[in-house]
Design brief:
alpha+beta, 6-stranded mixed β-sheet, 5-stranded mixed β-sheet, 9 helices
């Protein structure tokens, strides 16, 4: 039995798509917490050593190798040589609509010296606080509904992005997407700030239907975006391994960030998954890391983006 479990574990790590996208979305649930399957290896190793079972111990090499193949690049390793051109630094943060000190949160995000700051769950009071606090370093800003972008570079062609799932079509207050063009030193970059619908884990399973619908709408918008250089900043309520976000990954033709660290952002008290994302098209996202906690249930995420 332990050998069979090891083989199954290795299969799930390398091919999580083997779990069907059945009612309850168990496949998305598995993919959200996929790195944590690695904890099963030492847990299975202990009884194998106690029983002195060489076969079980050897079988555990399969899931160990599978985990390293999937996530080994996120383990600490020497930093690559610095790029010839300076990278664009961005910060992404769901600040929580219950945040009682948005000014302090804005200062904390600005301390990372980003060129772009994307924020979700904005309230009218938070918009005022962010605009005043970031005026010196990020004088250009755009907001739509509960999402916003503050930039060190001028912003043009600002417009809303419709990612509203059909079930919420009648809600005039649900506005969670915007697009702007940032005039960066490397040229214009299309910047998207989005907040996909929340997930619900309950008796019926992993409630991701609305999130998945919104992701498909976002994927279509990104696929039609004429700009070559694109940055997507947002609370996507999903990891990049989650099949529900496949339309977004495909539209950006994005790959995994090439920097050590898992940078889990949620929940802030005990981070289990990176559901906040910084992704790019025609660029490489590096040096992904979280920032110190704010009065939110998410940790801020920051990354450097080097365009081709």
């Amino acid at each position: 039995m332990p050998v069979l479990v090891s083989v199954l574990l290795a299969a799930l790590l390398t091919r999580p798509s083997l779990v069907p996208d059945a009612p309850g979305h168990p496949g998305s649930l598995l993919e959200t917490f996929l790195p944590w399957l690695g904890l099963a290896v030492p847990l299975l190793l202990v009884p194998a050593l106690r029983r002195r079972s060489a076969a079980t111990a050897l079988a555990l090499l399969l899931p160990a190798a599978a985990w390293l193949g999937q996530f080994g690049g996120l383990l600490p390793h020497p930093a690559p040589p610095a790029a010839a051109r300076p990278a664009l630094t961005a910060v992404q943060h769901n600040i929580s609509d219950e945040n009682r000190d948005p000014s302090r949160t804005a200062k904390a995000l600005a301390a990372a010296h980003p060129a772009l700051i994307a924020v979700e769950e904005l309230t009218p009071a938070a918009i005022t606080a962010f605009t005043a606090t970031l005026a010196a370093g990020h004088p250009h800003h755009a907001t739509h509904g509960t999402v916003g972008l503050w930039s060190a570079y001028p912003l043009t062609d600002v417009r809303p992005v419709d990612i509203k799932p059909p079930a919420l079509a009648g809600d005039p207050h649900w506005n969670r997407g915007l697009r702007a063009t940032a005039a960066t030193p490397d040229g214009p970059v299309a910047v998207y700030v989005v907040h996909l619908p929340s997930l619900r884990l309950g008796a019926s399973g992993f409630g991701s239907a609305r999130r998945d619908e919104s992701a498909r709408l976002l994927g279509a918008v990104l696929a039609a975006e004429p700009a070559e250089r694109v940055i997507l900043l947002g609370d996507l309520n999903g990891t990049t391994d989650d099949r529900g976000l496949a339309p977004v990954r495909t539209a950006l033709a994005t790959t995994a960030a090439s920097s050590p660290g898992f940078a889990f952002t949620w929940p802030a008290a005990f981070p289990l998954a990176r559901i906040d994302q910084i992704l790019a098209r025609s660029g490489t996202v590096t040096h992904v890391r979280t920032l110190p906690a704010t009065p939110s249930d998410h940790l801020p995420l920051t990354a450097d983006i080097q365009f081709d």
